[in-house]
Structure formats: structure tokens, C-alpha cells
Design a protein that fits this description.
By secondary structure, this protein is mainly alpha-helical. It has helices at about 5-10, 20-25, 35-50, 75-85, 95-100, 105, 110-135, 140-150, 155-185, and strands at about 15, 55-60, 65-70. The protein has a three-stranded antiparallel β-sheet. A hairpin with a 7-residue loop joins strand 2 and strand 3 (about 65-70). Mean pLDDT is about 90; it is low at about 190-193.
Length: about 190
């Protein structure tokens, strides 16, 4: 998947400025695609040049003018082609896993601290995602929203993000506890470095 598809998907809900798009990425799209604001601005320029989004200037009285973007018919066609193509398998690429993998040879103290930090960060993301899910479904309960909700895609990706963050938090806490117990029992050559 290219960043272009994530940007096009984010713009399906309406017009966004680059700043609004970055905020949308931080809240919802970051569950499945990470991008820095400068990457988003550059991608918007490429998408506009390719005719996949259209931009227009919005005049603001109390603030500087802003440029907002929307998906064009060609952009929707690009997303349809992308949606129809076979999905590539996902994979994990995480430097913390490399550290855990080598912890029994290089020491656990720093790794335990990083696992605990990750668990706390996951807790914060869980809180944000729970709030976003409540906001998306409004007055509906989850089953009703899943059956009849108007825009289900963002809700479904938030559910995946929530499941990921919960599992990640639980794994981090469990592995930190395992490494702590092993260090306390004197297991492994480099257990307490």
C-alpha cells in the first residue's frame, strides 16, 4: 500500500486541509498507517498533480487562508482499483522486539523499562480509541451501529486498532513480568545488566 491510498481513504469523508488531514491521521488512520505531516503535505501535492484530489482555497477572515482537498472521481477509481487488488500479508517490524529477542544476552533492565513505557502508551491509545468509537457510533450501541451505521469503515479500523493496542499492552506487561522474574531468579548470563 502506498501513502496515496491512505490519504485518499482519509479524504472520503469530505474536504480537509493538510492540517486537518494530519489530525485525522493522528486519531484514526494511525491505527494502520503512520505518516508525518510533511509526508502528508507532499502526498497531497502529488495527488493533486495526478488529478486524484482537487484543492481549493478557503478565505478566512481572522486566520490565514487555507487550502482544502477532496477526492475526485479519478481518486475514487484509484481507491476502487486498490480495494480490488489482493492484499499483501502484514508483518511486524519493531525495534523493541529485537531488544526483547536479545535481552537474555545483553541485559533486561532497559528492556523492561521500555516494555513498561510501551504498555502505558498503549493504555493512552486505548483510551483515545474508546472515545473515538463512542463518538463515531453516537447514540447507537455497537451492534446497532455495526448493522446500520452510515460510515462503517473508520469504525472497523478503530476496532482493529483497539484490539491491537490491548494485545500489545498485555504482551508488554507479561514480557516485562517474565524478564523481571528471570532477573530475580538469576536466570541467564546477562539477565540483570
Amino acid at each position: 500500500m502506498a501513502l496515496r491510498h491512505a490519504v485518499l481513504a482519509a479524504l472520503l469523508d469530505g474536504e480537509y486541509s493538510g492540517y486537518q488531514l494530519a489530525k485525522a491521521f493522528d486519531i484514526g488512520v494511525a491505527n494502520f498507517w503512520h505518516a508525518l505531516p510533511q509526508q502528508l503535505y507532499a502526498e497531497l501535492a502529488r495527488l493533486e498533480k495526478d488529478g486524484l484530489v482537487a484543492g481549493r482555497q478557503v478565505v478566512q477572515e481572522t486566520r490565514p487562508n487555507k487550502r482544502v482537498f477532496r477526492v475526485t472521481d479519478a481518486g475514487r477509481a484509484e481507491l476502487e482499483t486498490f480495494a480490488a487488488a489482493p492484499a499483501k500479508p502484514s508483518f511486524i517490524r519493531d525495534d523493541l522486539l529485537v531488544k526483547v529477542h536479545s535481552a537474555d544476552r545483553v541485559g533486561t533492565t532497559a528492556v523492561i523499562g521500555q516494555l513498561e513505557e510501551r504498555a502505558l502508551a498503549a493504555d493512552a491509545r486505548i483510551e483515545l480509541l474508546d472515545a473515538l468509537l463512542r463518538q463515531l457510533r453516537g447514540e447507537s450501541d455497537e451492534e446497532e451501529f455495526l448493522l446500520r451505521g452510515e460510515r462503517i469503515g473508520p469504525y472497523l479500523t478503530c476496532l482493529r486498532g483497539l484490539a491491537f493496542e490491548r494485545e500489545h499492552r498485555d504482551w508488554c506487561r507479561r514480557i516485562a513480568a517474565v524478564l523481571r522474574r528471570r532477573a530475580g531468579a538469576g536466570a541467564g548470563a546477562g539477565a540483570e545488566r
